[in-house]
Amino acid sequence: MGRVVVGVTATVAVAACAVAAVIVARRVKSRRKWKKVANVLKEFEEGCDTSVGRLRQVVDAMAVEMHAGLASEGGSKLKMLLTYVDNLPNGTEKGPYYALHLGGTNFRVTRVHLSGQPSPVLEHEVERQPIPPHLMTGTSKDLFDFIASSLKEFVAKEDGSNSSQDRRELGFTFSFPMKQMSVSSGILIKWTKGFSIVDMVGRDVAACLQEAFARNGLDVHVAALVNDTVGTLAVGHYHDPDTVAAIVIGTGTNACYLERIDAIIKCQGLLTTSGRMVVNMEWGNFWSSHLPRTQYDIELDAESPNPNDQGFEKMISGMYLGDIVRRVILRMSLESDMFEPISSKLLTPFILRTPLMAAMHEDDSPDLIEVARILNDTFEIPDLPLKARKIVVKVCDVVTRRAARLAAAGIVGILKKIGRDGSGGITGGRSRSDIKMKRTVVAIEGGLYSSYTLFREYLHEALNEILGEDIAKHVILNVTEDGSGIGAALLAASYS
Length: 496
Hints:
- By secondary structure, the chain is of the alpha/beta class.
- The chain has 16 helices and 13 strands.
- The chain has a domain at 83-239 and 482-495: Nucleotidyltransferase, domain 5 (2-Layer Sandwich), CATH 3.30.420.
- 46% of the residues lie in helices and 17% in strands.
- Helix 1 packs antiparallel against helix 9 and helix 9 (318-335) packs antiparallel against helix 12 (386-417).
């Protein structure tokens, strides 16, 4: 009997040792798994470094590239396009004005009613129309006749007081690459966004629209042909005359600003009554060795439709942030079994849209319920441990913080170029206490800034760090709305 008891006891002891060994092995494996994930995260964080010193290097590089782009065509990655806009709205404009925005598979018609006095809220009406797919690859006549007939229907709905107006003035926001020839004319360079109308390339966009108006019996004059960023500046300046620049940070990103005409060396001899001109920077194409680029950025760029192009945009705009997060999560899943089994959805580019990334980043629930839901719905990754969800949130934070801080550096680069950063020409962004700062307003449009709280907070934080609080308090960022609609109508009023 004693031998039996001893045997049973020995068996239990062996089993207990085996269970303990399995538990220890699992713990060791788990520690290794988390260590690999932690290493990927640490490497990514270091690669996305945006210390104040680095941001000031980006500021200086932006200002230098702006100088180069103004000196000669092709002198910089920044195109620094002339807009011929030198007369911005100031609130004295009066009457109904129109805007037409063609920027993709839809177009919009806007009518703005101006009272002749500045108003915090502008009365306006908007109608949206889809572009029939066959018109996107047909002829320029068919496309513009369709747009003109839609505008004609919109105008016909006016009340009696406006219907007898002899001639209507319109601002046309055309969001495709073009070479501006004057404030109301520009040559189409190439189509994008699914359009391919061969007979339109190389022609004056505004003239084609004007001809369509004539064919459709519309007495409408295209007074301004604009970029949506320029429209944002117009809205900002209408509400606040201290507005000197405009930034769009949404799906894409761009900037424009008011420049002295004598600083635009590549158009020597050009005169304006104000002595200034709005310059469309096309800053999405900005590049500098000081930008904190990681392997994920390199891979995203190589696999994009436009490699080696729009480098700045790919680090700060809503089109790309979610996909950078996806790429980091994919790397973590390949390095460990944290996300096992690896979902094929993780291999799909741009499946994680930036609004979803922002929702995960701003999830403040104790168990990160929203993070779990989005990972399951988007990537088919169910039952992810809370520890792993926290790591995903951290990845979102690193991507967003870098984007916002780089956008802030870009803004300060513009302010440095026009002498509004408080440095008095001193390199490195060091401020001087003996310089009297002017009140400086930057108009901002785009969901990434207006709707993403943490992005906005990181951008403001970086502005304060780069400029110093004494200087930063003189720089005001104002959110504007509908630069491509209301802004274009305001510019039509300025140039009617």
